[in-house]
Amino acid sequence: MATATKKASKIRLQPLGERIVVQREERESTTAGGIVLPDSAQEKPARGTVVAIGTGKQLDDGTRAPSQLTAGDRVLFSSYAGETVEIDDVEYLLMREDDVLAVIG
């Protein structure tokens, strides 16, 4: 089980259950034609890297199903998935594993 940490930070973010922590990829600030886009005109990318995973989804019989993801996986997710959390000026998304659409291989 991985946890989201930053070297200089003492804050530790450990997701519970079927939740995961994802760090979004950086946005492109210029277009292919060289036009610089302001932050307000940019769409947030729906891709990122899994930083930490929870213990897995609890099944009806009380056992836990292991996560299909591992820390370090690059994933695609819904644009409106998860809750944004900022720790030491780094933005993370806390979302359910079900919000992940695909793993980028």
From TrEMBL:
Highest taxon above the source species: Bacteria
Record's keyword annotation contains Calcium: no
Pfam family, one: Cpn10
PANTHER family linked to this entry: 10 KDA HEAT SHOCK PROTEIN (PTHR10772), CO-CHAPERONIN GROES (PTHR10772:SF58)
Family: Belongs to the GroES chaperonin family.
NCBIfam families named among the record's database cross-references: PRK00364.1-2, PRK00364.2-2, PRK00364.2-4
Stated name of the protein: Co-chaperonin GroES
Organism from which the protein derives: Aporhodopirellula aestuarii
Encoding gene (name): groES
